[in-house]
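Whether sequence alone determines local backbone shape is best considered at the level of individual chains. When preparing material for the folding task, we compiled for one chain both its residues and its backbone structure tokens. No coordinates are needed to read the tokens, only the vocabulary itself. For completeness, the protein is quoted in full, as a sequence line and a line of structure tokens:
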Amino acid sequence: MDRAQKQEMVSSLNQIFAAAEVVVVTHYSGLTVSEMTDLRNRLREAGANFKVTKNRLARLALEGTDCSPISELMEGPTAIGYSDDPVAAPKILAKFAKENEKLIIRGGMMGKLVLDVDAVKDLAALPSLDELRGTIVGLISAPATGIVGVLQAPGRQLARVIGAYAAQDAA
């Protein structure tokens, strides 16, 4: 790798560290090419990315970004997982690490918050942004569905319910 390629790599990594919502640092020693491809495909489907980094270049790229505290994690065979969704990359990486002990999560950053291994796993346990949106839509639409059901009930059935309540109060 010549000097120009190294500068381009540092610039690319700097943009990733500056723009990503979450960055997870991992060790990938012993993973086969097919396992790495499988991991990359899973991350891509979730809207996240995975990049093998050179530690020295990554440390240079971290300078001047909010992610600079994770430079101490850049030792050994290092790769980063990153995404704009704060849950996507940690969720996929934690699941893959559970299935394959060759991938080791070292820590990460979310915004200006430094994450240790347990924090990354806790973040992975949270529902994704799409799951949260679905839950909110479900909660909002449930009362409206109930009101529509009552309004569509025939008047006779509604009168029976009111009559049953009146008879119950009289007794």
Summary: The longest strand covers residues 104-110. The first helix runs from residue 3 to 19.
